[in-house]
Amino acid sequence: MKLSDYIAEFLIKNGCTHVFGYQGGAVTHIVDSLYRYPKIKFVGTYHEQAAAFAAEGYARVKNSIGVAVATSGPGATNLITGIGSAYFDSVPCLYLTGQVNTYEYKGELKVRQLGFQETDIVSIVKPITKYAVQITDPSTIRYELEKAVAIASSGRKGPVLLDIPMDIQRAQVDEPSLPPYHLQEAPHSEINIDRIVELLNGSQRPVILVGGGVRLSGAAELFGKVSARFQVPVVSSLMGLDAASRAGDRYFGMIGVYGSRCANFTIANSDLILALGTRLDTRQTGTNPESFARAAKLIRIDIDSDELSRKVKPDEYAVRADAGEFLAALYEHLDRVSVCPQAWLEKAREYRNRYPSFSEQEITDPNFAVAKLSELMDRDTVICLDVGQNQMWGAQSLGLADGRRLLTSGGMGSMGFALPCAIGAYYAGNRKTVYAVAGDGGIQMNVQELELLKRNRIPVKVIILNNRSLGMIRHFQEMYFESRYVATVTDYAAPDFCSLAKAYGIESMRVENSGEFEKMRSLLADAEPAVIEIMLPQITHVIPKLAVGRPIEEQEPLLDRAEFLSNMLIEPFEADNG
């Protein structure tokens, strides 16, 4: 059989229903084979970066491999940002790139290029993939496909890439004689449950910190069960938001630089942190890790031993384990764990009541606009957040109960993520309304995918929070560059997005005051794509925000000192430093 046909059959056997990509000369054999198999569909995007993000959205919703295809040269290099996004956020994706014929490839020649659009994509992406290889022998196709998918889906998950020259794609292979890949046995988890129980029972103010590893391990529902029996406050990282929401009334928000005050006060005053599948980077701890949760013991659960080798606290207790395996073990032993003192849970609720995410019920407060928007969203829907101020407003104020999913670009932090990610989420099987929430800057980076929405009648609702500026960087310019708004307000502009939607043949509306939110309901309810532009003031801020060097409980705008001290159960950081 033709090798490209073998690829299509392999993907079908592995449960892949949709492949995202952009057609090109060096990948026509693969795309044609995908087209000819009715059990799999090639979804043509309008940019390879969008295809990569769509594959990530597909993989995250389906909890399975996502696939993107691109031609050689610029097609392959356009995938790179999406590959990086999947790598940093641990998402299993398979990228298939076309390449010039093997007899055109420069090999060891000291020339820059021999074949047209020849580019060594394998060397370029090796630092941001778990595995990348060029296939030069058709008989290795089964081995390489099986190996790539196994590597992408095991341990700490992540992207892989196979670069396939055109003559290899069209080669004939004898399927029964293709050698297989023998899956390597995964290392066993290292869970000393007795030690975990001992640490938990020695705590009076425990907190669970939920990271993206909980969702990646397929353990969000199990976490909900653990949380229901283990009645302690729950906070999250950015990537752990939707899994942490399973804790219901015991969930107190995202921690860190742009976290909520209630979440930061809760973890700052804790005496034990159970961190599940999170890197605990400086966006969570602040730039001075010594100031982070100073009175707390730290239990870190992570599947990646390299992450655990980077100590956050010198005396932390590290457990190399999949978050799902750990939660299953803990769930079986929760009857041995003491009940969390009710006074501690009430203290966290006091923080939440004192510091809501918005104070004014007006559209001029972006957090209110986001909270109002989430009231209009369906149950069990997927919300894809772009990067910029909109990402932080969403993290602070979106309601994620009722089984909602939240997808965003965490480690790479790539603008242009939301719209193509929403397309992938839709094709993963969530055929309900999917929301792409973006700023006016981010949406313009992959706005061409509106044509895909219209072409395939995909019911993605594109919500644009339009402040007519690049607000996150503009805020930095106010803080550190005397409000010189270079390329954020000056030399920057946004189009009339409603007119743009009309050009694509998509229904749209503009919301300019709080009384118009209800008018969105009918547009959100129908099964067609839509663009909704929510007009915000040009000068907007994400608050609270942590300044460099401060502990996470001391966000700006700074609280009155007496009020701040009333929230502290431990000594302030200044006291620790004399």
List the helices and strands and how they pair.
Layout: H1 3-13, E1 18-21, H2 28-36, E2 41-44, H3 48-62, E3 66-70, H4 74-77, H5 80-88, E4 93-99, H6 121-125, E5 131-134, H7 141-153, E6 160-165, H8 166-169, H9 193-201, E7 206-210, H10 212-216, H11 220-229, E8 234-236, H12 241-244, E9 251-254, H13 261-268, E10 272-276, H14 282-285, E11 297-302, H15 305-309, E12 317-320, H16 323-332, H17 342-354, H18 366-375, E13 382-385, H19 389-397, E14 405-408, H20 418-427, E15 434-439, H21 440-443, H22 450-456, E16 460-466, H23 471-480, H24 497-503, E17 507-511, H25 520-525, E18 530-535, H26 561-566, H27 573-576
Parallel strand pairs: 1-2, 1-3, 3-4, 4-6, 5-6, 7-8, 7-10, 8-9, 10-11, 11-12, 13-14, 13-15, 15-16, 16-18, 17-18
Question: Quick recap of the structure?
Answer:
By secondary structure, the protein is an alpha/beta fold.
